[in-house]
Amino acid sequence: MTTYNIDTAHSEIAFTVKHMMVSKVRGSFNDFEGWIKTNKEDMEGSEVYFKADVASIDTRAPQRDEHLRGPEFFDIATYPELTFKSNSFKRINGDNYEMTGQLTMHGITNEITLSVEYTGEGVNATGNPFLAFEINGAISRKEYGITWNPAIEGGGVIVSDEVKLDLTVQVANEEV
After folding, report:
1. What are phi and psi of 149, to 5 degrees?
2. How many domains does the chain have?
3. Cβ pair 164, 138 in contact under 8 A
4. What is the domain range of residue 69?
5. What's CA 129's distance to the chain center, in Å?
6. What does the pLDDT look like over 132-151, one tens digit per residue?
7. What are 10-38's pLDDT values in tens digits?
8. Does residue 95 contact residue 113 with C-beta atoms inside 8 Å?
9. Are 5 and 176 in contact (CB under 8 A)?
């Protein structure tokens, strides 16, 4: 198996939540690292590790980002990072895989399953091979103890429980 490290300059760790029941707020984590250990001829059985600095959350609204870093949401003073470690990586069909693993966030670990599409490979500017993936899934923020959510007039809540995950990841066989 070969280890490929996340190329952060060519990757994005993004999420979306519903806001006020009708619109969406998109955000990302800007400081992250990780790797995949794989035999690229047969990705099944690959191992994946990922870590993000929660303080690097960015929703393009500084006041909201500060609120998200605080005790009502991520509480970065107590829980400064989130991590994911895969348990399984199985081919569904063609270039589509299912990855199951342990996501630890806000001091709580839960098993999640993500859809992974292997989108291709190439050689980067430094002459090293890279692989690319699209990774999608959803989690319940309540399952991680993140429950702040005042009701809004007329029914509903400010922030949806479901958080959709949308990762575009390029990994390179080099130190990045």
Report:
1. -175, 75
2. 1
3. yes
4. 2-172
5. 23
6. 999 999 999 999 999 988 77
7. 999 999 999 877 889 999 999 999 999 99
8. no
9. yes
As a residue count, the chain comes to: 176
- The enclosing domain of 37 has a CATH number of 2.40.128.110
Contact present, 110 and 103 (Cβ < 8 Å) = yes
Q: How confident is the model at residue 175 (pLDDT cuts 50, 70, 90)?
A: low
Integer angstrom CA distances of residue 109 from 17, 141, 143:
20, 12, 9
Between CA 139 and CA 165 the distance in angstroms is 8
SS (H, E, C) the chain: CEEEEECHHHCEEEEEEEECCCEEEEEEECCEEEEEEEECCEEEEEEEEEEEEHHHEECCCHHHHHHHHCCCCCCCCCCCEEEEEEEEEEEEECCEEEEEEEEEECCEEEEEEEEEEEEEEEECCCCCEEEEEEEEEEEEHHHHCCCCCCECCCCCECEEEEEEEEEEEEEECCCC
Cβ contact 106:79 at 8 Å: yes
Q: Are 1 and 37 in contact (CB under 8 A)?
A: yes
Is the pLDDT score of 168 beyond 70?
A: yes
* pTM assigned to the model: 0.92
Measured from the Cβ of residue 154, the count of other Cβ atoms closer than 10 Å reads: 6
At 95, the amino acid letter reads D
